Amino acid sequence: MRTTHMFIPTLREDPGEAEVISHRLMLRSGMIRKVAAGIYSYLPLGLRVIRKVEQIIREEMNRIGAQEVLLPVLSPAELWQETERWDFYGKELIRCQDRHDRDFCLGPTHEEVVTDLFRREVRSYRQLPVTLYQIQTKFRDEIRPRFGLMRGREFIMKDAYSFDQNEGEAQKNYQAMYEAYHRIFTRTGLQFRAVEADTGLIGGTSSHEFMVLANTGEELIVFDPESSYAANVERAEVVPVERSQSITSPQPLKKVSTPQAKTVTEVCQLLNTTPDRLVKTLLYTTPDNSPIAVLIRGDHQANEIKIQRHLGIHDLTLADSECVRTLTNAPTGFAGPIGLHGLTILADHAVGTLSNFIVGANEADMHYINANAGRDFTIDVTGDFRQAQAGDSSPQSQAKLETARGIEVGHVFMLGTKYSEKMGATYLDSQGAEHNAVMGCYGIGVGRTVAAAIEQNHDDRGIMWPIPIAPFHVHLLPVTNSERVHEVTQALYAELQQANIEVLLDDREERAGVKFNDADLIGSPFQVVIGDKGLAQGTIDLKERIRGEKMPIAPSKLTAYVREKLARDVNWP
Ligand code: ATP
Ligand code: MG
């Protein structure tokens, strides 16, 4: 393609709205443009990359026997009411009505639609297993759309669904998908890690997330440096520690004045102690309006997903200041378990190992010291209610866990019979007995994968595309206007194209500096500079974007050189 014929509106300045580098570079290199919050147009350069990622996904899905379909974006409310997700999904589900006032939604995921298809069409075990996938636009009214394609409200997802006869077969399918995901993300040139994950709004029994490691990632993962164990902190189990040997005998409970000290840090400073000697009392309201209190050690973070799972609910909200006042008679920041009546008290395991600790006194500007569970108040349930953190013991070795940030690019779920039971997706076995199909579902965020690739592959001049997903392989940059340069450029342009190498030719009447800047920004793996000075020596300059330095090469050798490099990276065994 010639730059003069292509719509690549690059920007010199950093767009103010972009907080992360991938978003900035996608806007600057003219890949995408914003239409509304979380809604983008893909311009030619951006779409080329999207299509390449889709193609890799397609090849790997087809390789494991998954079949491509295209399900509708618009789906009728009735299907979602059958699984109760019409209500459960809440505000993230974008709803609309047709001219007859019938309710529909724009699909955020397609378990309902695909399970409906299955129950209508599949009767016998002979038709199993079936795995269907699609690559399609999804809609989720995210509370905080941000970071460009990373968290959109309209975004492209590959979603796949498997149906099997039993758990064992389903597990095999899950494993095949898990391996396909490894190949997909390896092929896209990403550094990633599969981690144990929570099953969230999709539900089901087990799941893994594929995380691209990047400092800007929204997810926090813990991993064991000495084993393969890694998990999202939302999910990571905390191994309870034995009750400390150093536990001291109970001291008399004492109320102390802590004026203005509401946070753990402020209380610790005032009382000259450390956060692990303090217990936070978090008050939550549940959907049926019965409040609960959760006790967490001062240096730990509550894990609301674990608390919700324990209670069997899905929307736990921190009590607002009015509610805190009703429950404790005090402003926020001074809640404590002593004298707190009429609500269930949950405590994290770590709280159970403490003695003589500090808690709020349910009175403005006051805390208790030397509080002891059992003597001063009663814990109703002890459990794993906190987030794992760096320094915790690994569940799989003697090592201490470490943390890293990650971008979730893919997610595989073992669904079990959750949807088939609710929607009656059954099959008959060889004896004629009816069973629920065992399902799995598997997503990949296509745009998010592209963004993650940029997060991992850039420098301060622009993108450095991994070869398999680069919008173009070679960027030809003629830098003078002479007849000779023109001739060599045209010949190379034709020859590279003949060899099926994707070339972008910067044929604009621009200064060399402008062309170089745009080429570094757009990030094609190979830049070729054609100028009179080099040609006088019989060479052109080849720069590999990742390496940075220029290397003189004879024009006649260029195509073979690039082809060999591409063959190594683009083709997959
Ligand atoms: P998150 O926790 O980031 O919201 P999720 O758990 O809701 O993700 P899934 O339902 O598992 O996501 O969706 C499958 C994949 O789709 C994710 O792994 C991610 O790559 C992608 N994805 C999800 N939400 C978005 C979004 N708002 N914008 C872009 N990609 C998304
Ligand atoms: Mg989500």
- Largest sheet: number of strands, sense, barrel closure: 9 strands, mixed
Distance between the termini: 29 Å
User: What would you call the structural class?
Assistant: alpha+beta
H/I helix tally: 16
Low-confidence stretches are: none
Helix content: 25-40%
* Rg from alpha-carbon coordinates: 29 Å
The name of the CATH topology of the largest domain is BirA Bifunctional Protein, domain 2
The kinds of small molecule bound in this structure are:
adenosine-5'-triphosphate, magnesium ion
Task: Please identify which CATH superfamily of the largest domain we are dealing with.
Answer: Bira Bifunctional Protein, Domain 2
Which term fits the overall shape? globular
- The CATH class name of the largest domain reads Alpha Beta
Features:
alpha+beta, YbaK protein, Rossmann fold, 5-stranded mixed beta sheet, 16 helices, 28% helix, 27% strand, binds adenosine-5'-triphosphate, binds magnesium ion
Task: Give a structural overview.
The chain is an alpha+beta fold and about 575 residues long. The chain is about 30% helix and about 25% strand. It has 16 helices and 31 strands. The strands form 8 sheets. Strands 3, 7, 8, 9, 10, 11, 12, 21 and 24 form a 9-stranded mixed sheet that branches. Helix 1 (about 20-30) packs across helix 12, helix 2 (about 45-65) runs antiparallel to helix 6 (about 165-185) and helix 13 packs parallel to helix 16 (about 555-570). The mean pLDDT is about 95. Adenosine-5'-triphosphate (ATP) binds near residues 140 and 151.
